[in-house]
Each structure stands twice: as C-alpha cells, then as structure tokens.
Amino acid sequence: MTELVRTLLLAAVGAIDLTESRVRSVLDELVQRGELAAEEARSMAARWAERPSRGDDLDVRVASAVDEWLGRANVASHAELVRLAARVTALEADLASKAPSGPAE
C-alpha cells in the first residue's frame, strides 16, 4: 500500500511538473491561435526557465509527505516490519532453547 500511494503521488507530481520544452510548445500554440501576444509568451518562457529546479527537492518533499501521511494512518514502515521480524525470530530461538529437549511423558 505504501508503494502504491508513493507511486500515485509521484505520478501526480510528474504530471504537474512540465518540462521547459512543453511549456514553450504550449506558449507557441497560444501565440499561433492569437490567444497570447508573442512578447508575453517570451516573457513567460523566460520566467519559467529561471524558476528553481524542483527535481530532487520535489522528490524529498513528496517522500516526506507520504511518510507523514503513513505515520498518521498508523501504517508500519518496512524498517519497522524488519525489526519486528528479527525480534520474533530472536524470541522463537529463546523459546526453543528453553523448551524441554526430551519427549514428553
């Protein structure tokens, strides 16, 4: 479930995070249709190109948001499950060492 939520969030973010070439393409199309002046399109494209890169920072923010959501949803993380599995294994070994070794009479 954790991976599904993470995948869905990253897909949504990817859909929003347009590349510069796609932005230019959309702006050019608007200019061709007369819905945007060429100068405005150049200005918007320049502002888009100057924006800070959101790649890794965005991934970190999404991962943080997913972790926070999972914490509030009270879902165990992979690390917690691994620790619990190791603890169960240790307890089983301890129990087995304390069990009588001979057949029960």
Search tags:
105 residues, mainly alpha, 5 helices, 0% strand
- Low-confidence spans: none
Main β-sheet description: none
Helix proportion of residues, in percent? over 70%
**In terms of quaternary structure, what is this?**
single chain
Strand content: under 5%
Shape: rod-shaped
| String of helices and strands | HHHHH
| Global structural class | mainly alpha
Distance between the termini: 49 Å
User: C-alpha Rg, in Å?
Assistant: 27 Å
* Rounded mean pLDDT score: 77
Helical stretch tally? 5
Number of domains: 1
If you had to describe this structure to a student in words, what would you say it looks like?
With 105 residues, the chain is mainly alpha-helical. It has one domain (2-98). Helices cover 76% and strands 0% of the residues. The chain contains 5 helices and no strands. The chain has helices spanning 2-16, 20-32, 38-50, 55-72, 78-98. Helix 1 (2-16) packs antiparallel against helix 4 and helix 2 (20-32) packs antiparallel against helix 3. The longest helix is centred in the last third of the chain and has 21 residues, at 78-98. The protein starts with a helix and ends in a 7-residue tail after the last helix. 1% of the residues are buried.
In short:
With 105 residues, this protein is mainly α. The chain is 76% helix and 0% strand.
Question: How are the secondary structure elements laid out?
Answer:
Layout: H1 2-16, H2 20-32, H3 38-50, H4 55-72, H5 78-98
Helix pairs in contact: 1-4, 2-3
